[in-house]
Every structure is written in structure tokens, then in C-alpha cells.
């Protein structure tokens, strides 16, 4: 621009830019007491509180309040002097929700003994009495404020992820940043995962009305292809909300189950592709083999009674095929039409194509039980990761351990309820490393443990002991068979261990959300305990009856003995008195003779 050029009038600084002023959100702004308030909502503010039953768009959401509490009001509200009844007051033309959020944040700060921020506002003296322009300005702010698009959110997440990771933001600063944007630190940590989500995934969540935060959006994107994934996650979120579980316990269990399903589906897809290359057909899993022409090879034999193997059957039979067990996704080799190809079911008579209906029903029941065991084994192994992650989070507590944690530690150690040598040598290092989140403890050398103890404050000693005891419970009492009870030395299935029930109940008390298989385990243990109590009561009843019968018999025998004894005594008395009677008679006779 040359010296001769002048600034166009259209971009000249205007006189109606307003003046800055600081407002105290507690003393100056009292929405419920307009007569006592210095600042009121302008009568021509476009956003008004509606009648009862209609949505109140003037109230700030929790995210806005958290943001104002963290960094203050960043966009100055616009106020104007009032006329008439409220001549001495300022009216909010733009920024009513921001002012209310500032007041809510101030009230929270005062309750917590903290200082709060004043609000910087722009006072437009030129709008005093100019109602049409004030209303137009309020409408412009609200009507033309477009909601952020999906891409806006994703790009913001990506930028935040880059900034946070690059600067290695301290925890306190990260908390402040998260609050400023209405997010949690957990969501801020999830920003890198959110940044790579396909926009259509977010659009699907919006269309379905799923109110997921960044962590939940990223999780859903990971398992979206699993059938009913969205419904299961929504159910888990509702359960967490109903139970007040801030650690997303039910959500984590649902995610782990969905990941397991996804891994199984991927494994089946990969195996199916390999079978296709080998020209081996894949059939659907018959949920009732009795009505199917196919049978697993393990249940078949040749026409001369020889067992069928996968390799031999593949070479000699055109009916060779595969299916996948829905319980664990493993391949089951079958003959697609065993009757057509001259096979027979093991145990069938020579003149029968298959066993009797009764035998077939028993075989189907055995298959169903085998599927149940497979499914529960897989579920039990799957939830172990979530449970041990919860234990690891417990062990990171910086404060004093609760009394029941100390009780558990002392009771376990003092009663010696674990095989110390076997536990330490076999799995001690891995579990201790997991729970204390220290990779150096993986092999648990003595010097590493000594250094750990030395750098641990006295207040956290109990958590070290708890990690040790937790490892014992996980190693000895949460094995693959713990959900149905271990076998004894004779191969008989024992009831679910008392320690398994104790451990799950203890974790549940401390906020752990039990998975379905764990709930089922506790229910089974409860049922077993009730059945054992009934059996004990029955044994005690029979013992009482036996003792009562023995008492009655003993009393009867004693009564018989007394009667015999009494009879003998009576007989003895009769024997002793008979001679005396004879002598008396003779004496009487003599007296009579003498008299005569």
C-alpha cells in the first residue's frame, strides 16, 4: 500500500466494538434472583428458557461446565445496558449458556475450597434500546452456529493426539486439556485411536443414537464387524451406569468377549481359505446331527469295523469335508453322507445304518455337553485377561490398602494356603510383573525384587503383598478347570473350590464386574453348597433317626431285661414263702389235735 492509498471505509475500525469488563459469575449474575443481580438475561435474547415439558436449551451441559472450570470462558459473552425497569443492569445478548456454565463452575470451586475465574465480557453501549439489532445478533450467533461434522471431530482428535504425544504432556496439564474440551484424560489418551476411525463408523453411531465417548468409539471400531457388537456394548454401558462402575467393568468384559469372537471368526476365515485351496468342502455345523446325513469321523467306522482317520478318509472317500465347531472355531472332520459312502456309526449293529434313537439321543447329549465345556473353557480363559488387568489397576493404588486387603493378605500367608515353592518357581515372576506393571519382574530375580522393595514406600508395602497373594489365587485357584471344579486323584470331578468363590467375591466387592462365566461359576458353587447342605442335613437326620432307633431299641431291651429280672425276683419270693406256709398248716393241725 502506497502512502497515497487510504484505508477503505468498509474495514475501518468501528465505534461499536464495545468495551471490556469483568463480571463475577457468583455476585453479579444470579439467574434465579434477577432483582438482586447486576447481570440478567436480555429480554430479546434469542435462546430462551421454554415452558415445562419442552427442552431447556439455555442450560449448559456438563462438558461446557468442565471446560469453563478448567480454562475459563474463552469467548467473551456480549452484554448491553438495559432500559426501563432494569435501567442499572446489563443484559446478556449472546453467551447465556457460557455465563451459566461460569456460575456453575464457580459454585463447584467454592464448594471445594478453590478460587474461581471471573468472566470477561463485551459491553455494547451502542445497543442500548436498539432491540431489533440485539435480537438479530443473538439469532445470528445461534442460527448460524453449525454443529461440528464427523470429519471435524476426527481431525481434532488427530491433532490432539499429535500434540499430546509430541510434547509428552504432564498428567496435570493433560487433565486440564481434557476438561477444556469436555473430555476425560482417558479419552485424550484414546485420541490416536479415534483419529484413524473411518468416518462412516462415527456416522453409524450417530445414526443409531449411540452416545459413545472417544474410548468407546475407538473400541467399537475395533469390533464393529462382530454380529450384534453395537447392541452388546450398549447393554454393557447401561450395566456400568446402573452399577455406578466408573472403571467400565462390564464394557471391558463385553469388549473382551467380542474380541474373542472376532479372533475366532478370523481364524475360521483363514482356515476356510486354506481348505478351499486343498479342494476340501466346508459344510455348516449341524446343530442336531440326528437329522443330518453328515457325521464326525471320530464317530464313524468303515464297513469292516475299522476307525476312520482324516488322512485316510480324505484319500479314499468322496464325502470328505470339514465343519467348524461353533464353541471354539476348531475344525471337525466329517463325512458328508456316511450312509451313501458305506460307513456306519460306531456301536451300530451290522444290519443297521445307525444306532437306536435312544443311543443317538445320548450321543447328541454328549456332543452338547462337549460344546458347553469347550465354550466355557474358552470364555474362562478369555476373561482372565480382563480380571488380571483389574488386579493390576488395584496394585497401582498409591494410598493405604483397605482393611479387607490386609485381612486377605494376613489370612492367606499365616494359614499357608498355597504351595509356595511350586507357585514361585512356576509362575511367580510373570504374574508379579503383570500386577505391578514392571517388566523387570518377569523372571523375578532376587536382586530385582530387592530393588522393588527398596524403592517402594512403606504405605505401599501392603500392595506388594497383595500382588503376591493375588498371584497365588490366580495360579492355583483360577485354572482352566476352576469354573467346574478340579478332578481328584481318581478322576472324579470335585465341587468348585472355596478359594475360587472367595477370590471372585473379593474382586467383585472391590468393583470388578464379573463376566457371565464367572457369574455362572458363583451360581454353580452356591448350588453345590446348598446341595451339600441338604445332603449334610439328610445325613444328620438319618443319624438322628439311627440314634433314636438305637435308643428305643436299647430302652426296649433294658425294659425287657427289667421285666425278666422282676419276674425272676417274683419267682424267688414265691419259692421262699411256700415252706413257711406248710409249717403253719402243720402247726395248726397239731393245735387242732391237741384241742380235741
From TrEMBL:
Protein name from the UniProt record: ParB-like N-terminal domain-containing protein
Alphabetical UniProt keywords: Coiled coil
Amino acid composition bias (Basic and acidic residues), ranges on this chain: 22-39, 528-565
Sequence ranges of Acidic residues compositional bias: 566-596
Residue segments, region Disordered: 22-62, 523-596
Domain called ParB-like N-terminal: residue spans: 39-143
Residues forming coiled coils: 248-275
Origin organism lineage: Bacteria, Bacillati, Actinomycetota, Actinomycetes, Kitasatosporales
UniProt xrefs under SUPFAM superfamilies: ParB/Sulfiredoxin
Keyword set includes Cytoplasm: no
